[in-house]
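Repro:
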Amino acid sequence: MKTLFLLLSVLPLWGNTQPFVMLDRNLEQPVQVHATFDLSDIASGTFPLYAQDLDAIVHCLDTLARKIDIGNPMPATLDAVVSEHCSILMWQGTDGRQDSFSGVLRVSSGNMIAPLPIAKNHNRKTTVRRLKQLADYIRNNRVVVKVATGEL
């Protein structure tokens, strides 16, 4: 009986208690904080991020925007790993006269992977603008997450 009680008391420590921040894919509505997410959340137009990854994602988006903006040479494909379950994949192409960029933010949880397209064959200026828009959206909604998770 004592063993069962002990097992039940530590069982929540093994579960995923990290909240998810659900972003509006159009970057128009405020974020929402959920304990879990499923395919219906993604189908309804939201995109999940782990709350603990927000600052690292913003930093990575800002760094990529700055590097692309000043024209630093990039590899043809760049996979920036933000955390164990989040990465940003960028790739660069050219049509002979100008560079084009494509990018995706990927989040995995369990057996699901959710992609959020950032850019698709956009020029340098548009790609930088999209990266900055996403970083600003996350940064500006950070207070909503802090209130919902009790950090504020």
